[in-house]
Amino acid sequence: MRTILFIDPPAFCTTLEVLQDPQLRRRPVAIAPLAADRAVLLAVSAEARLAGVARGMAVALARRICPDLVVRPPDPARYARAHRALHAILAEVAPVIEPRGWGHAYLDLTGTERLFGPATEVARRLERSVRERLSLPLAVGVAINKLVSESAATVVKREAGADIWAVAPGYEAAFLAPEPVALLPEVPESVRRRLDDYHLDRIGEVAAIGETPLRVAFGAAGGVLHRHAHGIDPRPVLPPEVQAALRLTHELSTDTNDRHALANMLRPLAEEIGRRLRARRLMAGRLVVTVRHADDTTAERAVAVGASPLDAELWRAACRALDAALVRRVAVRSLVLTADGLHDGGGQLELWPATEFNVSPKAAALQQAVDRMKTVNGERGAADGRAG
C-alpha cells in the first residue's frame, strides 16, 4: 500500500509578496501582468478571495469588486527561489517528489516509515520545518493515492486552524462522499456542466451510480468519474526526469506534410515510449501528438490509449492523434509524442491478465522478445562505441 503526501502552500505567490512587503499583511493581494491588455489575475490571496475576487478574473473587474485590491506583477525568479528552497526541505524525507506548479508537490513516502516514522508525523515535521525556515504555511494531505491526498489538502485549507488531514486506508470513498464534485481534480468543464444538469452535487451521489450508467452518460469520462468518486487513483508519483523520459521529439530534416511519411516517423517514437513504459511498469492513459509547422504554429491532439501496452497499439493511437492534428496544409517541421495520464501497469507483461488488458499470450511473448532484442543490441552498440 502506498503512502502519498500532497504539499500545498496556500496562496504561494501572494504569500511571498507579503513576506517581501509586510505592509500587505491582511490586505487583498493579487498577481497579474500590469502592462498587458485585458490582463487576468494569476493568483489571489485568501483576503482577496473573501472579497469575491478569483484567479482568472479580469483585473478591471476585480478592481470594481474589490477597490482595495493590491495588484503586483509576477516575479518568477522569486517564486523559483522559494520553490527550490521548499523542495530542498521536502527532499530531506521524501525519496520521490513530483512537482505540481509553484511550491506544490506530491511526495511518495512508501516504505520509509522505519526510517522517518509514520506519514502523519512526517507531515507535521515538514509543516513545522517549512514554517520555521521559510515562514511559509503548509496544508498537507495524507492518503494512499494522489487524488485523495490532494483532496485532503484542499479540505485542510477550508478548515480553520487545520494544517494536516490524513485519510486512513479504506476510508477514501467515505471521506470524499460529502464533498462537492468540484473537489475532484481535472474534471473537464463539459462534464462538470452535465453533472450540474443531472443535479449531482456531491461526490457520494456520483459514487452511488454504477459505472455502466456513468459511461452511457459521459462516455470514457464516466469510467474515470466512477473510479475517482470511489477514491481510486493508480497514478504513480513521478519525478520530473521520468516525466521527461516519456516525451520524445523528432525534428524533420526536410519539412513535409506527407501524412504517410509523418506516420512512419511516429513509429519509432511510439516504440520507444512503449519500451520505457514497460521498463517502469507503467501504462499511459493518453498519447499526445504535437505538430509544429514550418511557420512555427503548433497543433496538439490527444487520444485515449487502451489497456494494451503493445507497441503496435501505441503507434495506432499516435497515428489517430496525428490525423486529428493535421488540419492545415502547411508543412510540418517537428513532431512530439508524449505519454501522459500515467498509472501503474501492475507488473511484467507475463503477469498481466490477457482478459483484463486485452493482450494475447502470443502477442505478449512477441513484444517481450522484441524488447530483449533491442536491449541486447543497445548494450552491444554501447560496448562497441566504448571499444572504438
Give the full name of the CATH homologous superfamily of the largest domain: Reverse transcriptase/Diguanylate cyclase domain
> What structural category do the secondary elements indicate?
alpha+beta
Estimate the mean pLDDT confidence: 85
Distance between the terminal alpha carbons, to the nearest Å? 47 Å
Q: What general outline do the C-alpha atoms trace?
A: globular
Number of helices: 17
Strand order of the largest sheet: 5-6-1-7-8
CATH class of the largest domain: Alpha Beta
Biggest sheet: strands, sense, closure? 5 strands, mixed
Number of domains: 3
Q: What Rg do the Cα atoms give? A: 24 Å
Share in β-strands:
15-25%
Helix fraction by DSSP (H/I, runs of at least 4): 40-55%
- Which runs of at least 5 residues are low in confidence (pLDDT < 50)? 346-357, 379-388
Annotated CATH topology of the largest domain = Alpha-Beta Plaits
Number of strands: 14
CATH architecture of the largest domain: 2-Layer Sandwich
